[in-house]
Design a protein that fits this description.
- The longest helix has 20 residues.
- With 123 residues, the chain is of the alpha+beta class.
- Strand 1 and strand 2 form a beta hairpin.
- It has a domain of 78 residues: 2-Layer Sandwich (Alpha-Beta Plaits).
- It has two helices and five strands.
- It is globular, with a radius of gyration of 22 Å.
- The chain starts with a strand and ends in a 7-residue tail after the last helix.
Length: 123
């Protein structure tokens, strides 16, 4: 539990009552990434909305995936591009390779979609 706020409340008497507000935090165990061991990565559209709108979107995504996977040392074994999500199977060569790949790919693709379809925000 983490304390997020503390307030003094006047209860009508001479003394104030201290109220502490707490928030339960969920601990997230770190992912175990072993170099060379394949990971199944899923990238979903926000609120299950579409990520791909036209054939060119799929082509650009795959071009950037190929380039960034090579740079990150993550050879892609298999992929599935659905309208509103992506499945990737890849063995990263380093513990941070998959994260770096997904961050770079996601940022580039969202910029492309926002510019192409004159929109803002996340996918």
């Amino acid at each position: 539990m983490v304390q997020i706020d503390q307030k003094v409340v006047d209860d009508g008497g001479n003394r104030g009552q201290v109220i502490r507000l707490f928030c339960a935090t969920l601990s997230v165990d770190p992912r175990i990434v072993l170099p060379g061991v394949p990971l199944h990565l899923i990238q979903r559209g926000n609120n299950r909305q579409a990520c791909f709108y036209a054939d060119d979107d799929y082509r650009f995504y795959l071009e950037w995936l190929r380039e960034y996977a090579r740079d990150a040392g993550c050879p892609v074994h298999n992929y599935v591009l659905m309208t509103n999500h992506v499945h990737l199977l890849l063995p990263p060569s380093t513990t941070g390779g998959a994260g770096a790949l997904m961050k770079r790919l996601g940022q580039r693709y969202v910029q492309y979609v926002n510019r192409t379809y004159r929109r803002t925000g996340t996918l």
